[in-house]
């Protein structure tokens, strides 16, 4: 089985703040491949500073924009996402984050998802979201 891994990077999303890639595309012999997107927090791609710090709605909007940019850099969109994980600093933010998250998905598309509360997130963020997408071969 012939497989390859390709790092995905775009300046339209924040640069990695550690030893990781924005995303990794794993291709194989099948007619598609899997895209593993690293978790995104609400960092501005241009300044690297936290957008809307403390306002979970503003943070979630930026997180979704960042995730969309990483997906686009790999030839995908939210319609290709099959699984997400939402990490929350406070489960009390669930409803607000869920509302913003739902607005960014394609009509009727609902990927599998897990939501967990964590003790802390990088840079004091309130929300982080990662994703796995299936990229069609005809890209």
Topology pattern, helix = H, strand = E: EEEHEHEE
How many strand segments? 6
Indicate the CATH class.
Alpha Beta
Tell me the CATH topology: 60s Ribosomal Protein L30, Chain: A
Shape: globular
Structural class: alpha+beta
Terminal Cα span:
21 Å
Uncertain regions spanning at least 5 consecutive residues: none
Q: Which CATH architecture? A: 2-Layer Sandwich
Main beta sheet, described?
A: 6 strands, mixed
Roughly what fraction of the amino acids lie in strands? 25-35%
Q: How confident is the prediction overall: mean pLDDT?
A: 92
Strand order of the largest sheet: 1-2-3-6-4-5
Helical content (DSSP H or I, runs of 4+): 10-25%
List keywords for this structure.
31% strand, 139 residues, alpha+beta, 60s Ribosomal Protein L30, Chain: A, six-stranded mixed β-sheet, 6 strands, globular, single chain
């Amino acid at each position: 089985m012939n497989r390859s891994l390709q790092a995905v990077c775009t300046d339209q999303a924040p640069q990695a703040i550690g030893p990781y890639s924005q995303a990794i595309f794993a291709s194989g012999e099948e007619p598609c491949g899997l895209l593993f997107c690293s978790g995104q927090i609400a960092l501005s791609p241009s300044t690297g500073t936290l957008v809307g710090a403390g306002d979970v709605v503003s943070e979630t909007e930026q997180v979704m924009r960042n995730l969309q940019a990483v997906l686009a850099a790999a030839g995908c969109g939210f319609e290709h996402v099959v699984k997400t994980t939402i990490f929350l600093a406070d489960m009390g933010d669930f409803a607000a984050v869920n509302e913003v998250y739902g607005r960014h998905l394609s009509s009727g598309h609902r990927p599998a998802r897990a939501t967990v509360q964590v003790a802390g997130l990088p840079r004091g963020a309130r929300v982080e979201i990662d994703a796995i997408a299936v990229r069609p071969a005809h890209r």
